[in-house]
Amino acid sequence: MAITAIKDAWEDFRRYKLDKEINHMGCYIYSREERAYVERCWKDVRVGDFVQLQCNETIPADILLLHSSDQSGICHLETANLDGETNLKQRRVVRGLPGQNALFEPEFFQSTITCEMPNNDLNKFQGYMEQPNDERVGFNIESLLLRGCTIRNTEVAVGIVIYAGHETKAMLNNNGPRYKRSRIERRMNVDIFLCVGLLFVMCLIGAVGHGIWTGTFSEHPPYDVPDEYGNFLSPALAGFYTFLTMIILLQTLIPISLYMSIELVKLGQVFLIHNDIDLYDEAADLPIQCRALNITEDLGQIQYIFSDKTGTLTENKMVFRRCTVDGIEFSHQENAKRLETHKELDLDDEDFTKLQHFTLPPPNLGRAACAQQSPPGALRRCQSARARVQGHARSRSLGRRDSSQSQVAFSSTIEKDVTPDSRLLRRVREAALQTESLSPFIPTRTSTAFADFFLALAICNTVLVSTATEPRQRVTIPPPIKPPGITLEKIHQIFQRLKLASLSQSFSSSQSSSELGVSFGARGPEEPLPALGSGDSSDRGDRGDSGDRRDSGDSTDMGPASLEEMLQSVSSSSLPPALCYEAESPDEAALVHAAQAYSFSLVSRTPERVTVRLPQGTLLTFDILHTLGFDSVRKRMSVVVRHPLTKEIVVYTKGADSVIMDLLEDSGAEKRMKRIKEKTQKHLDLYARDGLRTLCIAKKVLNEDDFQKWANFRREAEAAIENREELLMETAQHLETKLTLLGATGIEDRLQDGVPDTIMALREAGIQIWVLTGDKQETAVNIAYSCKLLDQRDTVFTINTENKETCESLLDLTLEEVRKSYECDKPRRKIFGIIPTAAEAPEAPSTEFGLVIDGKTLSLIFQGGLQEKFVSLARRCRSVLCCRSTPLQKGMVVRLLRGQLRVMTLAIGDGANDVSMIQAADVGIGISGQEGMQAVMASDFAIARFKHLRKLLLVHGHWCYSRLAKTVIYFFYKNVSYVNLLFWYQFFCGFSGSTMIDYWQMIFFNLFFTSVPPILFGVLDKDVSAETLLGLPELYRNGQNSEIYNLSTFIITMLDAFYQSLICFFVPYLVYKDSDIDVFSFGNPINTISLLTILLHQALEMKTWTLSQLVAMMCSLGFYLVFSLIYNAMCLLCNPPTNPYWILERQLSEPTFYLLCLLTPPAALLPRFFISALRGTFGASLILKAQRIDKLPKGQQDLEIQKLRSRKATSGASPAPNDDLDQSISHLCVSPFLHPAAAAVSQGHTEGQGLSSSAVNPLRRGTPEEGYCFYNRWAEEESAATDSSAGPFAPSRGTAPGQGCGQVPKDRDSRASSGSHRRSVSAVTL
Questions:
Q1: What is the value of pTM for the model shown?
Q2: Which CA distances in Å does 1115 have to 313, 859, 885, 1087, 1123?
Q3: Contacts (Cβ under 8 Å, ≥6 apart) of 561
Q4: Nearest CA to 144 among 226, 65, 47, 35?
Q5: 116 in helix, strand or coil?
Q6: pLDDT (tens digit per residue) in 659-685
Q7: Packing angle between helix 1047-1071 and helix 1151-1178, nearest 10 degrees?
Q8: Are 692 and 748 in contact (CB under 8 A)?
Q9: Which of 157, 264, 788, 830 has the highest CB neighbour number within 10 Å of its CB?
Q10: Nearest-angstrom CA–CA distance, 656 and 839
Q11: pLDDT of amino acid 340
């Protein structure tokens, strides 16, 4: 107990030191007395203080940004400690504050700030600032610097403290640690009470028996001595004294030594886990850390895993894979091969060049040199940047947390170095060579589409540009590099010629707004942005075989040699310094790097301008008129720019294909655009099946009048205090309509090595895996498919709503359908003979459903008392994804499942935003990643990679549970079996409390004779080898169901202990009956027989014999004999009036003693051995089968494992294919506000036009996407072209408006035609 207390005190002391270190971190606070910023501790920060923050400094409190050294009033943050993302976020100074160019003087600040009460919502913050002239200026979360974030790319920022200490949003999301007890420990405490009850019953029997025995004497026996008054004890009082005596005699029934032995066993288990070489990450030089010593056995009983996404499942590396431009798909096979062979190693330049090298077929021999010179130049730039970034990674892997050397997010080699597709690169260069020779009669729409596509990739983002030498210093001024072969005036003339050439084929895009009464579309002809470096024909049917001829290189008249010479001079000219891109999301970084690979390089960015280098080397600077950032409701972002040459106002938009396709201009009159849209949709479906993240790229041209009207409306919305969010959403929707589709991209999110295999193994082990992430919903769903958390044939329910009644209706409706399918599955399992285990996990979930839910809906569930319905639905789903979850919500979800289902939970994460769920789970695991050490400090175990979780649970978890469970059961058996020997003797000594065994031998029995073997057994025993445990993950269910240690096994063990004690006592009793043997001579054989029986019992339980275990058992028996011989030879008057002198020496010379020791232990162990033999012969469990496999030769082991796995897969297979699920993938889109006629959605088709229209959705009333639920992936391309089921919720095509609303249609075979842009979707109406 003292050792346990010391261990807990040490852990508390380490937490105290960490808290003290954080509280004494320094920051600069403005002092009114000194009129200067002075250094203070974090603990001294108070609300209302002015705090000055510098670059790479951690924010000490929630601070409202009042000043930034950036002229645009922007401050950049790294929020890894809050949301787990290493990318940068932008925060803006409160609008309306003057003097951003001058120093901020707190003395002159006289405004009054009013804001909301402290809360734990990390994504919302509202308030206003009342200035001295009574003008009110509203602000939101964009102006709040949250505690725990880090200032980046900003030299100085000044703000006023809004929330401090425990009122900050980060602290409110952390509930603090809790004391964790393992399930075995809790079970053991209950059994201790049962042993106390058993002790009470045995003592009561002794007291009653003594009272009855003394009452049988007619006269007081000679040993009954009266007191000084001559009075004798009454039978009742004598019985009470006997009761107390029996407690002292039988108190060893309570295994106090068990607690000390368990601590030693767990310490040995932790040592073995820590030294497992398979759990060591060589790249990061990090072994596993076991920070908690009291819950190792819980690793073998996990039923639910709650995982973070970013940095836990993924490496947060987005890699550009494929794209489609103007209806033509470019597969980027060279890039795919690079990714397959790429390893994150420090390759030398030669190997790296070989890996990246590609050869482009030139149009002719004269241009071969031009086509081959540019790529090596680009590679040299990538190599220089790559070396520096890897230097940062190495320094971080050693455990140093130097903020000034922070690694640039999304800038690893595998993300930056995109190998261009040879066809696409050749088309781009051909278009560049044709530019000077274009005439007004040559159609240029294809060339324009290619140029606009790559310009959109480079411009439509919020990426910051820095140099490789100074990765945190923004590039705001483009380098003065202009190739000598062409001038800006010449480029301007070329763009004018391109514009004239496309006038005859342009089309207009206009939009009328009922709210504004003005048109935001271009009233004049909409011109696709002409630019250099583009070219290809997207419609080969319109041009015959011209495109093919250009592909094959038959056309040699590409243009004058002057432009070719210019390109050659550019490739050989001095190269600009290597650039680093810091993006808010990995998708943006991947797209910018892809554009750079095709020589559309983002050179610099400021809030007002963005500069792009074209393939010819010309720098074009676009004026940024407005930026509409990405949000989870719109699922898109847009940037409004003014073209520097054509002076047109162009809107570039990128976003989810499900949204962009709805916003395209109705091109029914133009067959070409309609054909491009259909081709692009097919390519998107292809990308989706490959698990790629898809984004659509579109554009729109505005005239000056429409833009000015929209800009005025936007400024009014930004200045509004009430309904500000709704007004901003409305303005964004007015701008992003009637777009022109340019193309789409497919991006792969790089998972950590071994994540899919680990998740599949854990699934086979019966573990349910949830993902709780603060990331976007689309990102989480894509990752779920990539890591096999969701299957392509799963029906995925996605529930997003902001209304409690809607949320409850959605839960009820979805739960009803899931229950129907779940009940239909049960008879099939019985028919095919799959018998569930006796202690199966509660209601095994269906394998056909997945659930996706967002943070706002989770808030409604917790606040509206819908927890039971949510749990009832979630437990029946294969996987659950909770997106946009706050740290507090993560912890609440874990506690909800623990409390409602009584299951064992494990939480794993790598950032400070995961601390809450790590502490709430039964087992918390932190990943030693790149997001600080907060998760590791709060965790019970720390690993370097997610794949290590497989062996940690399936092998070490199984071993720890099996060993400790058997050890606990053995200790109970050992104590009960030994104590019962004394209890049976009481029936022959008048329940007087006397013993037939010497007291010293009784004391040493638990202390020395039987203490070491159980400890070694709990540390070293292996019931199944590690290879078999990894090959058969189903073996893990043995610990999940607590098959080794539960109430039934405890009772059976107690009965077995009683039986063995009866044999060990009464066999010697019958042998020595009617003899003149003394009491110690009678007790010594019983003691020896009991020791042999207990040691042999443990030998039967051992599955792995080691030399140390064998030596320990032999030493225990030898120490008993040596101690007894010495003690009996030396002890002349140790226990008067009886005397143990020379007893064992005399008995060792008697054959009867040896006969008893030889026959009695086998008789005592016979029932256990017999039952084990029957169990292994007739009802062999999976554990016994695995143990038999371990005894086979190595070659046969793998074959038997495969046979066993295939047999289980065959027995667990579905009897017949379900046409509704096998022929199509019915992914559910639950949208409570869709009109029934518009909700008939099927494979690749949407019946209604304008699902987002307010006319179809009359309940929305301007509320942005209220209750909208995203649909999920994806139908097979083949089934999209054939008739297939619309899913369990799809209404029939004949449903009239207003009919069937609020109920689930019974026609499950509804059919709908295909041809629209939507993928496989099923909808439900309420």
A1: 0.67
A2: 49, 62, 58, 17, 12
A3: none
A4: 65
A5: coil
A6: 898 888 876 557 888 889 999 999 988
A7: 150
A8: yes
A9: 157
A10: 45
A11: 62
